[in-house]
Fold this protein.
Amino acid sequence: MASFFALLRKELFVLAVSPFVYVLLAVWFSLNALLFNISIDTQYIQADLSLLPPYLFGSGMLVWLLLPIFPPLLCLRMFAEEHRVSTLEPLLTAPITDSAVVLAKYLAACLFFLVFWGGLLFFFLLLDMHGATLDWARIIGGFVGSCLLSFLFIATSLFASSWGGNLVLAAGGGAAINYCMLFLPALFQYDDTVLGEVSRNSHLPNLISNGFAAALIDSYAVMYLVLLSALFLFLTYLRLVSRRWIP
Amino acid sequence: MNRKFLLLSISLGLSVAAICLVIGCLYVFSSPNARLRFDLTAEKSNGVSERMLNAIASIDAPVRLTAFLYREDEKLTSYNSNVYMRAFDRLRLLIDDLEARTSGSFSSLIVDSNSPLVEQQRLQQLHSRQSGEVIILSTSDNHVVLKFEDLFEVSQAVDEQRIAARLRRERIDEAIGDAALRLSNANPFKVAVIKALADDVSIQPFLEFVERQGHTVSHVNSFSMVGDQDLVVVPGQLTPFTPLDFAAAKQWVDDDKHLFLALGAFTTTAVVDQWNQILAERGEHFEEGLLCEAIPIAGTFMEGRHECAILEINAGKISGQHKINEPLLKAKRSLLFAGTRPLTFGDSINKYSQSRLLRTSVGAWIDNDKQGVRFARDGNEKAGIHAIAIASAAWRPQSALRAGHLLLSGSDEIMREHLDYNKDWLATSIMFLLGDDLEKSGLRSINEIPFHPSREILGRIKSLTLYLLPGLCLLLSLIVWMRRK
């Protein structure tokens, strides 16, 4: 356990002293701020601020185009970079289990991603300070949903990053998996078949904007995001273990 | 080589097993029995009501809900109105909640302008959908169509002042619940509505409204033609009773059968006298005159305008004591009563409990000038609080269908011209009269949170969001980069 926390601290420190991560944060905040300002300047939103959380956390296109990209970029160096600069082998031979390595890296990325979403909470706090009445149930619900979704995307990104030292493939692979999870269900959601049923149940924008960001937490949505995250973490672990005999 | 192959097979096997396990778990968690929903709102009114769930559950066959979310009415989109955006957001949320909380016999499909064109056309043809129809609730052999106006009440756009249309109220839960009751068709209540005229067309929307709540409605010519109905509704009456009808009406009331009687201020004295005679034992009485209230215009209260006779009954004038009004107060609804006659009650034979449901404000007066209606006071009017709707029920009901439920309304316009403004109250009233459980009514309020910041505040928010956080991050990035260098 001590080695797990040591690795977690190290991963957090590495993220905190990486200029690239701060540039990433700056771009994330700028684009979200742009969307936020455009939204609050529209008559739609000014007439009813309760529309803002589902839009920013759930159905806003900018968020849905950005969110699949940022976790892979954040997780880029976690396995792929270590593999590239050959520091992964020493880590895997150190007195720490492979599962602890995966979990420490995942937890570090998740904790850091809270800062990404925390910025959006700061925007709402600004609105509150300027006299707006806010529906905090929707905001907190949307925040929780977006965080869980980001954690899923971090898990897929770690999985993509564990496959080798090619950074472009790691980032591109992670983003591709994330986009597939976002948009594939949208293609089949109108089918009357079982595929349509499955698509409707796994449509991520719906799970967030009609559930979390509407202040309605569905146990299925939580389980969907948590179980898929666990699955990708397990696959990452398997990949790390199998590296010993399949390079 | 063989060992490598074996290990690879084990890895692949474990991966497949993990994927199967996750799919299996998700399948179990997606079933309605294993699904829990937590409403984070303070009022806990975000999802569908128990009433709607029970109504859906009462249908034996599999039910399919198809929602067509199209922005078809241009009046609701002009001047950047957000009516459709909010309405469809709410519809999606409730349909999603309904699907999550009902058993597998319920399924839903949402079609909007982003759906594949072929699918849109196929579904529109399948349901023979007309413009304005939003929800089609269907079983294999029956279907109910709900239009946008059945689900929402909207204030119209004002072109002269460029004011956008706004969403005032939502009736999704009520309307879909009613539609489900119609589909279930399990022992529907029988409601008779007495014609005020031989050709009473203005009552047609009310008849359809009652029918949509799952009841069987018959429009009969006179009271003597009422058979074994569960409820009789008198939506205004123009001509006095014949002796036969009078006897039938008196017998109906004396037998403690259920009655909803609405007589407006312009009902003839002869008709009112007859009804007062029938209701004498109950101690309930229709008074003469037209109730008026001064209307607030530009910070002052105006009289002498016909709008004074249209009473807005807001929360302060709705009694919270009676269960008819509970869902309305909870959902923050107001009502509109026009051409209203005052009511009194009290000296009954102590066989009935009586309640004043709705009242006027303290500034209301009875306009009963001999020269005609002036909508203004000259000092001789009886001013003060007046009852405009009364409900009563027998202390000791003879049976569920003979519980002596009686409801008097001082306006018949609520069932005609102003039906749209009073649907919720009428629905809960009819539910009370028929002995339905009102506790689980699905009325929902639509609370707007307007925020109209000045350009200065918007500019400040823009500076803080666009420059503060990104700037801070770039600064940190520079510091870290320099320190590492």
About this structure: Chain B has twelve helices and 22 strands.
